[in-house]
Amino acid sequence: MSPEGVTVCPSGAVFLTSEDGQIWRSTLDGNAPSRWASLPDRQPAGITCDERERLFVAIYGVRSGSGKAGVMRIDAPDQPAVELALPSEASPLSSYNGVLAIPGLGVYATDSGAGWIVLLRETSRGDVSAEVVARDILIANGLAYDPARRTLYVASSLGMTVYSYQVSTDGTLTQPAVVASRNRALFDGVAVDERGRVYAADYKRGAVLRLADSQLMAELTHPASFAFRGGTLLVTDYHLNQPALEGGLYAIELGACGALTLSR
Fold this sequence. Notes:
Blueprint: E1 3-8, E2 14-18, E3 22-26, E4 34-38, E5 42-49, E6 55-62, E7 70-74, E8 82-83, E9 96-102, E10 106-111, E11 116-122, E12 128-134, E13 140-146, E14 151-156, E15 161-167, E16 173-181, E17 187-192, E18 198-202, E19 207-210, E20 215-219, E21 223-229, E22 232-237, E23 248-253
Antiparallel strand pairs: 1-2, 2-3, 3-4, 5-6, 6-7, 7-8, 9-10, 10-11, 11-12, 13-14, 14-15, 15-16, 17-18, 18-19, 19-20, 21-22, 22-23
């Protein structure tokens, strides 16, 4: 298996996506992961877990071409996935990639093809709204959030840049800024620790970087997605469009935990 997305739930459970439409649960003990859910005809990318232990999966594409890319929610292993609302403003290029649940704000997702960040919010009745909250990001990819600074980070893969946005109380994004830009980089996943230090995966160069000081934290073939589990940064090694090649899930001990996500 060549996993792309990874997330850690509040319970500590670890989940992975693979581009063949499978969602896996990993025990981190060296044994093969177990299948948690299957999304037929879908190509999942990023994955996130909310405070209710529900999984949200970014759908990069639909193999048959008869459906739309977007975000799906999986409430339990024995229940069908729920296809969530899309913005009223449609894009023929839509390919959802990164996804991040933030308590009190909603679920942010990147639409790589359109270059958007989309915010999905659930009402008290269970309805879901979708709104474009940022634009013009060349291949918008991984997301990370620092609640202490109310800052959302996003990787722009073709822009060779990681951007930051200030997050308003209503979830809208303001004050875009460049955090890091690297010539010929192909940034994928991003993460932020409890000290506010930002990490990025350079998929092309096989590097896991701490951006503030350009420190090389690890080298993998193709690092893609990040998730913190305590002081351990989990990283997927993902081979795009090469299902026959084995990837993996790797652990980097950083001595710092992921940024504590607080509700507003």
